[in-house]
Task: structure prediction
Amino acid sequence: MSVEAIDEIPAEKYQTLGLTREDFLWLLRKMCEMRKFEERVERLFFEGQLIGPCHLYLGQEAVAAGVIKALDDEDFIISTYRGHGHAIARGVPFEALMAELFGRKTGTCKGLGGSMHSAMSLEHNILLASAIVGGGIPIAVGVGLALQYRKSSRIVAVFFGDGAVNTGAFHEALNLAAVWKLPVLFVCENNFYAFSVPHKKSFAGESIAARASSYGIKAYLVDGNDVIAVYTSGKDAVAHIRSGCGPAFIECRTYRKKGHGVYDKAEYRPQNEVQEWMKKDPIERFANNLMQLGIITKEEFETLNMEIEKALDVCVEKAKAAPCLDFSELWKLVYAEEEAHYG
Amino acid sequence: MVREISYAEALNEALREEMEQDDRVIVFGEDVGVFGGVYKVTKGLLEKFGPERVRDTPISEAAIVGAAIGAALAGLRPVAEIMYMDFITIAMDQLVTHAAKIRFMSGGQVCLPMVIRTQYSLGRVHGCQHSQFLASWFLNVPGLKVVLPGTPKDAKGLLKSAIRGNDPVLFVESGVLYSWKGPVPEDEYLITIGQADIKRKGSDLTIVAFSRTVREALAAADRLSAEGIDAEVVDLMTLNPLDVKTLVGSVKKTNRLLVADDSTKTGGISAEIISRIVEEAFDYLDAPPVRVNSPDLPVPFAQPLENQYLVNADKICEAARRMVH
Result:
């Protein structure tokens, strides 16, 4: 099976995609929300107001926005420890996400998950945000199994990084999904670094997408910094899955603006490489294209960002004022059947 | 009505009955379909319930446990099989870091009604990579229930409860017991997970056992009885969470504790049980607690050596006599 490559989609072609002005603006707004949220989170960490592990989505915004736009709200998502972007694209409120980062009972996971699990929101059909690299992939296959068994038209999308593709769980899961023709969309956010180790030093093979296609899975290799290219591949992949032909795989080539976690200055990356990628900022590129097409003005874009900043001010204050769970309540959350607790 | 059927047949009945009652119950694992399970526990299920509900998987333990988690998250009640307990090591991340944690780390948003069935082949001359009894590892994993039936009746009732429950259960069968026949009621019954069972009442000492060692402990108690020692046998049945209350109650009555534990001695299940009793019933003890374990060795293959390795009625009797006299 071959790999389909989708490069940058020029602005002139936007009109042929069937997307409305609202759709374009939704994509832009979501990406700006992710950007501003993460910039705020980073600041709160540097100020010492937030503690614990946290992995920012800065630079990868086009992937979450494009893929989630291609899904229905009813479709399931399995996210990762770098999951704030997935949650924001799915409409998880800033307030709940921020409160989770502060460990508050008003958070998405009542403050028991923290940043790495904060994307989990049953209400938004995000069933899991796993903090183990590759750990969510076989679980997505199980969700796909349930959907297939129920003859549901829903699908499940699972996000993971390039580091995950070298785990055994990745290979076991892809093989099983392909053998059983399960409705799973595998989305690899290839940001070219597994923590500090560059892709070329840890990955053997031509492309990640080619690995997937070797399992007989329909695979796309996409410019992950172009939200429209991601969306287009996503639409195609989702249509393939919904037709009952089995899983699909998208490798989105992107780049994180910062380190692996907030504490990481990413000094292991060559400066020229960083600069090349910064020129391809997904938000700037898309906003410029929309301005060129007359869909948004520069002023409107600035206003949008200011609105988001204001909303963040409010949710940070609310999160800080919220309480933590009582320790005594933890016992109720270990097992669904409470009598199982004997202390 | 009660008839005698084997431990494997009892498990098979549990699966069949639960699948008949609830179409959310699906079964998958290595060789569970066409072959009917390497120990025939899933025999006939494929024919009865079809390939959508009974699936052979590739040899992919992490994917099997992961798929069970995902299926449970999406509303099914999967029963997945890991053929040998040794192979659970390959799925440890999925079992320990995912299955046991997802409910808690989500702030209680989800529950995982899933069962992982597995068996340990200690006593079947399978060598050291197919005989490991690793249940003690899971005492250290809150969020996972660990169930070990020791009789055909318990196997059926506990498996039915595990399938109907809303928590992830590691259901550990004993390979050596599969062919053991015992009385099993024909009418439907369930056995509560999390409760120990007093298999034999006695007044001179408490013998705590589970799974394979229940049979050895009961045989030992019979022999001890002929010598005038009246042993009480407590079958733990669930290791996590541990029914400390029943244990303490029994020791307060008999004032002596012996644990018959298939774990290797260091860090084994018996270590935990004795600690609990020392913490909660020290003043009631008339003798130091004693444990009969597997030695701290990998399981040898040669049958005479494996026989010496095993916890058995002889070793339990010998330890009991020393405690009482």
Q: What stands out?
A: Chain A touches chain B through 51 residues (CB under 8 Å). The longest strand of chain A covers residues 184-190. Chain A has a mean pLDDT of 96.
